[in-house]
Amino acid sequence: MKLAFWLLPLGLLAQPHRAEQSLEIRYWLLDPDTHQFRISHDFTIDRAGQKYVHSFVRKGSVVAPDAKMTSLDTGKQLKTYTVKGKEVNALGYYPTPTEPDSVVVQGDLEQAIGEGLSTRVRVEETYTDPVGYAVKGGELLWERTLGRPFNQVTLPPGWMLTGVNTPAIISVDDQGRGVLRFTNIRNDQLAVKITAKRRPTK
Q: Whole-angstrom Cα distance, residue 139 to residue 126?
């Protein structure tokens, strides 16, 4: 069994205040036979005049229609739907255009961002990725590149970790699920490969 542990200073482990948290993404792996996992991440929108918020769906993944965006400042759920990349490019919000035919989750902000103001939004999505998440040789296999500095992955119930290819802080949550936390201090993406097996039944 190949497991890696990374001890970090307490300051890095502390959870920052909501208004400061822009760098973390969390994954909850569902039953691997479904090839699905849940994602949640928060970010700040501070571009004056911006009326919409976007979550870009990675090529190879399919986002479920239950995607949800919530204003963390008011607690209200935003109207959320999918659009094509070409529609997002036409808004001119982002310096680097996305693929015109790509899928993007879009949420309508309650009002356009005022000059010098900002708002916080939480995005929650379910992805299906049959290539990156499956059962192979009797083991759960989840492979993904992680671009955020802080990344947390929770295994599905009834599965125990057997291997991870890069240093991680490993723990168990209050439901008995394995949790892996990755910190990427480099200026590139972290290629992660996780394997797990079903817990033996009594």
A: 22
Instruction: Out of 3-12, 82-91, 162-171, pick the least confident.
Output: 3-12
Tokens standing for 3?
């497991």
Look up tokens 């356009």; give the residue.
112
Predicted model pTM: 0.85
For residue 46, what are the CA distances in angstroms to 7, 50, 114? Answer: 34, 8, 8
Q: What is the pLDDT of residues 71-96, one digit of tens each?
A: 999 999 999 999 999 999 999 999 99
Residues of 95-113 as b/e, b for ≥16 C-beta within 10 angstroms? eeebeeebbbbbbebeeeb
In whole angstroms, what is the distance from residue 39 CA to residue 67 CA? 10
DSSP 188: S
Q: For 142-157, how does the pLDDT look when each residue is reduced to its tens digit (9 = 90+)?
A: 999 998 899 999 999 9
The full set of domains in the chain, from first to last, is 10-35+129-198 (2.60.220), 40-124 (2.60.40)
